[in-house]
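CORE FACILITY INTAKE
Project code: CF-77B
Contact: R.S. (postdoc)
Sample description: multi-component assembly, two entities in total
Requested service: structural model of the whole complex
Turnaround: standard
Below are the sequence entries exactly as provided by the requester. Do not edit them.
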Amino acid sequence: MARMKFLCDSERCIECNGCVTACKNEHEVEWGINRRRVVTINDGEPNEVSLSVACMHCTDAPCMAVCPVDCLYQTDQGIVLHDKDACIGCGYCLFACPFGAPQFPQEGAFGDRGKMDKCTFCAGGPEEDHSDAERAKYGRNRIAEGKLPMCAEMCSTKALLAGDASEVSDIYRERVIARGSNAGAWGQNLAYNAAGNKP
Amino acid sequence: MNQRLQLKGSIAERCSPGGLLALLLLGWLLLAWNGIAEAATVAEASTKGSQGADYWRQVTQGSSGYSTNRSDEAGVLINRSGQEWRQLRNDKVQPYGKWALLGTVVVLLATYLLLGSNKLDQPRSGRTIERWRKFDRYLHWLVAGLFIILALTGLSLLYGRYFLPELLGKAGFISYLQLAKSAHNYLGILFAFALTLMLLKWFLSNIPSVTDILWFVQGGGMIKGKHPHAGYMNGGEKLWFWLLLVGGVALVLSGLVLDFPAVIGLRDTLQDANIIHAVSALVLVCGALAHAYIGTLGTEGALEGMLSGRVDEVWAQQHHDLWYDEVKDKK
């Protein structure tokens, strides 16, 4: 069974924000919400590095463990999805997430959190595949179409890899051998190695 | 490598005899050494430089970078405290809170079964005196009513997912928690006002004195037939007041932080507020259970004071003798 993963190669990311734009356009994500963001460390200085971050679809996902309504679930491909109808906007998933993935629109009298929104690995939500309800709440379901996430597909330098873990690691391993170092991968242990989650 | 070396050697041998072989060997070795050194430099640059172990360690410790995304903490790659909060909430607060609640219920049940209700020693006189004014009673029941709603909804947020879906069905559970969260957030603000007013109103009656210490030393009326001296408020009531003051302030302040995520949106603050809120709430729920038991089943005639405002003179003499003497003199 395939295990879907993201891998951002910091040796290649050029902070073009193409992934952010591709995601926002593909899913028509609402105003004020970005499911993906690019972070640059040492910006404008020597040793500048950029990385694209979104939900990493963790193995032992902290968001799933703390949700009071138990609205997050993991598909058999390892993709962490959620049910927006059940979400109560408490923000606990955001408190727990290592990657700052959950996003909340502001709603209500006190600027309350609305329904949580996050990267779906382009796999929609609990609704029927390709239904209008799924499209409206979670965006396009590319996985059901047999396609990979838009952010990685659009990445100009192929820094962002998305797909089956074994293929992603094959591609990355080739790069490591060519470069002679494996300094580029990021967040892998934290997201996918259960031991990496325990401090 | 050895094969290549032999091959080179054999070509050299064919072309020219003697020392040429040695020269070629030396040249090849030099080239190889240069290549190794070069590769080592490249590897060193990419592992020891910007993206070396130290660098990644810094990033995983939650250091912040630049992002065109302007939302709070967008520049933070790794939220270190998230996992700590998760473990604190799920592995500490949840189990210990559960045992504290169950423990309180068991202790109260045991107290009732072993000691029974604290009955009046003498038959009622039929003459009553005013103990709680209308304003005090309304305030008490407002705070109590809100507390019960907030406790039930709050406990549902903490423990609901483990058993409520089975009781209410998945759809029922979701609808209930939607309502519970909204009710908790909005009524919490009303509770903050009501509690503050109540604490201010009753503050002067609850200043501790030596009588209260003696009240506790003498068993606080738990021992049959023995009634330690007490004024308008006895030691136990004052203890509950101060628990409510300290716990209530922590509860209300942390609750207000959680209520306005648009104002204080930083995760560390919200995580801390959440833990403080949960712990103080669990302590107060345990306290409230004890308070409710003592005020109803535990003590004969106590509840009528808070319902009608008046208590029997016999009750007043038995439980609050010093206050009774004061009031009696004034009459």
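Facility notes:
- The first helix of chain B runs from residue 2 to 15.
- Chain B touches chain A through 56 residues (CB under 8 Å).
Invoice: internal transfer
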